[in-house]
Amino acid sequence: MFSLTPNSQKCLKEELHANVLVAGEYEVSEIAGQRVDYVVRDSKGHILSQKDNVNKGKFTFITENYDTFEVCFISKISPQQRSVAQDISLDIKVGIEAKTYEGIGEAAKLKPIELELKRLEDLSESIVQDFTLMRKQEEEMRDTNGIL
Does the keyword Transmembrane helix apply (predicted)? Predict the structure, then answer.
C-alpha cells in the first residue's frame, strides 16, 4: 500500500524470467474530481495491461522473455480542483503464487487432497526450475571470473 500525490506517477519494477504468470489486484481510494490510471509495461515500452480512471480491479499477463516489468499508477486532476493524496493498495503475485487451483479442481473433478497434491507438485517443479536457473547463473559468473 502506498500514497500517490496528486498529478504524479509512482512505478514499481521487478525483473522476471520468461513464461512467468503475473497476477495483480489493486484498489484506489476514491476522491471526487481525481482520477488514477494504471499501466503495466516491459522495458521496451510494450504495454501489457492498461486502464484509465480505475477504482478497483485485476490484471494478469504471462512474460514472454526475461525482462524488467513495471506497474505505474498515474494521478490526474484538473488545476482548479483541490487535491488530496490517494491511497493505493496493490497485491502482485508471481509464478506459482499467481496460479489459482479452484478452477482446475472443478474442471478436472479433483478431490481437495488431489488438488493440494497438484499445487505441491507445481511448487516443487517451480523450485527445481529456480535451482537450475541459479546453477546456470553461477556457472556463467564463475566462467566470467575465470577469464579475468
Answer: yes
